[in-house]
Amino acid sequence: MFIKQTNANQVASCVKTIFLFKDRAKALIVKTNNLTHDRYKPQVKQSMNKRDEISGTLNWYATPPNPVVWEVSNSLVPYPLAVKRMELEAQAIFEGKQPERVWLIEHPPLYTAGTSADKSDLIDPDRFPVFATGRGGQYTYHGPGQRVAYVMLDLNKRQRDVRGFVTALEQWLISTLHHFNVAGERREDRVGIWVPRPQKGPDVEDKIAAIGIRLRKWVTFHGISLNIEPDLEHFSGIVPCGIQQHGQTSLVDLGLPLTMDDADLALRTSFEEIFGPTITD
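Structure (tokenized):
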């Protein structure tokens, strides 16, 4: 898919239809313990997901190769501060003044509304602060115990392929979960990473990770979130990503006694497999 970029207004417009699912525009919105949990192993599918078909050939290394700065913030970061910094970093990356960066943080409890958010999906508007944001997708929750990774990469030096980039982010999350023997899966008709929950009933699955990105001059910002040990009840104040028929889960909810440091190590290892080496700032 080709997106022509001529000015900031057109870029913002393109973001609202960030990539195609089934020829329909849909806006968008990660220490191995050697644990084995058979009930979370992949289920056999009748047909391969379209994005699964291209995930095996992912190589998003930069040209020329340069390591990505890997930064971890250990305190809760207010959402407006994070957005302001991402925008400044994205512009500096485009101008060649700053290296590409992945910024791992946690937020205080809050809801964000993407460019496709439906106000009726905000069930409890007074529960937590609500922030409108320029990323793709609908309503989502961020809070303590959820790892948010803001991904600021220059696709001018990688691949100008928005759908391919989202597939790469999905594979990053799937590979991260694989470190813990959790089978995260894509779904062609909805975004995010999903875990089958057969013990809850047939065809039951819960969302464990979300994706929502924005591009400006082919530099990405916003990114992904992975549920490590958030308060899952906090998701009840919204219809997450506009999907009512499925729930939310986390690594701890799946019975895995993991820490944020465990998840961060797996995230970094899996990121480097797809996007190339990282360095600590």
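Confidence is low (pLDDT under 50) at residues 1-49. The CA atoms of residues 96 and 154 lie 10 Å apart.
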